[in-house]
Structures are given as C-alpha cells and as structure tokens.
Amino acid sequence: IEEEGFKNLEEGQEVEFEIVEGDRGPQAANIVKL
Description:
By secondary structure, this protein is mainly β.
C-alpha cells in the first residue's frame, strides 16, 4: 500500500493497483487507496 505510516484497508475500501507476476502467480502491486 503506497502511503506513509501504518498501512491497512477497511472492508469495501476502493483501491487502484497493478497486477504483476510473482513467484506464486499474479499478485497486486503499487496499491493506492482512492
């Protein structure tokens, strides 16, 4: 999650992210809260 300090998301929180290929398949990267 791209922000300073403690990083958490609330249920239903809208986010924007990129999908990258990790060791175990696709994963989210560069997560930004909207």
